[in-house]
């Protein structure tokens, strides 16, 4: 299905997105690294991929904004060719608190960045991939979270709700485009060692919670990226509307 071998990974400057971009490049995909602001991290990642013989470009774009998403996809059309794999990886969270302490502005921002980005990017991808529109098919992998099942009480119910929406979008879109050559799946990671937890006000959150994980350890970004890679490639050719939980048993 991935005839063009062109992949877009949103939020790929660091963490799970960066590891996914590296693995896709290793598998021969021309990769577009999308990010919001961290130029230095992206330069380092790009150099690493290029020095290993891979092909990549970077596009700085806020994927929660429609015009930015259109610019991202048009840049990829011109510089790499038609996208065949989209990884909707962008996700943000804010300081841990109860729902009754949350501002309306914060709730709205978390939902906008986490859900609108997935909607906008998926829409552009379907228009290019669907055989209904003359495309050659493709794959969309959404990065949800175990939070969609736990609800993240006392920490981030807004974030958890946004991931619940990602799960529902994954299932709905998968069925909508299943007969049009597009597969849509998601991963729901557990506690993974990335910089994201610092945005929630607790950089060492995984260390605090690891004893609650059946496997008694936090996950590495690469362990999530491997699941994304499997869903992105032909190895999972009969899988759509499904979820993989790289979460150590949670
Ligand atoms: P991270 O280390 O915090 O990285 C977030 C990435 O998103 C960065 O590349 C950031 O770019 C980018 N970004 C943020 N807002 C953006 C926007 N509006 N437009 C474009 N890019 C934007 O995150 P992570 O921990 O790797 O998480 C990746 C995904 O996994 C998220 O969806 C997250 O919800 C999910 N997840 C993570 C965990 C975990 O424990 N870490 C668990 C479950 C699910 P800049 O660097 O330029 O700011």
TrEMBL record:
Transmembrane spans: none
Keywords: NADP, Oxidoreductase
Pfam families, per the entry: adh_short_C2
Cell membrane keyword on record: no
Known catalytic reactions: a (3R)-hydroxyacyl-[ACP] + NADP(+) = a 3-oxoacyl-[ACP] + NADPH + H(+)
GO molecular function list: 3-oxoacyl-[acyl-carrier-protein] reductase (NADPH) activity
Function according to Swiss-Prot or TrEMBL: Catalyzes the NADPH-dependent reduction of beta-ketoacyl-ACP substrates to beta-hydroxyacyl-ACP products, the first reductive step in the elongation cycle of fatty acid biosynthesis.
Family indicated by similarity: Belongs to the short-chain dehydrogenases/reductases (SDR) family.
Protein name, entry field: 3-oxoacyl-[acyl-carrier-protein] reductase FabG
């Amino acid at each position: 299905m991935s005839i063009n071998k062109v992949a877009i990974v949103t939020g790929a400057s660091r963490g799970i997105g960066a590891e996914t971009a590296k693995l896709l490049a290793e598998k021969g995909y021309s990769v577009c690294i999308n990010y919001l602001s961290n130029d230095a991290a992206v330069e380092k990642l790009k150099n690493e991929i290029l020095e290993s013989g891979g092909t990549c470009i970077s596009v700085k774009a806020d994927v929660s904004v429609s015009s930015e998403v259109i610019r991202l996809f048009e840049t990829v059309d011109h510089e790499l060719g038609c996208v065949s794999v989209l990884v909707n990886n962008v996700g943000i969270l804010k300081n841990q608190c109860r729902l009754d302490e949350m501002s309306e502005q914060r709730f709205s921002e978390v939902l906008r960045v986490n859900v609108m980005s997935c909607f906008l990017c998926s829409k552009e991808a379907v228009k290019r991939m669907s055989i209904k529109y003359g495309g050659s098919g493709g794959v969309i992998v959404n990065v949800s979270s175990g939070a969609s099942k736990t609800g993240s009480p006392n920490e981030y119910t807004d974030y958890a709700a946004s991931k619940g929406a990602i799960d529902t979008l994954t299932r709905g879109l998968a069925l909508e485009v299943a007969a049009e050559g597009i597969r849509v799946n998601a991963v729901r990671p557990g506690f993974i060692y990335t910089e994201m937890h610092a945005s929630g006000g607790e950089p060492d959150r995984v260390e605090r919670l690891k004893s609650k994980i059946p496997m008694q350890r936090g996950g590495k970004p690469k362990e999530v990226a491997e699941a994304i890679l499997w869903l992105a490639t032909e190895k999972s050719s009969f899988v759509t509307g499904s979820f993989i939980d790289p979460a150590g048993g949670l």
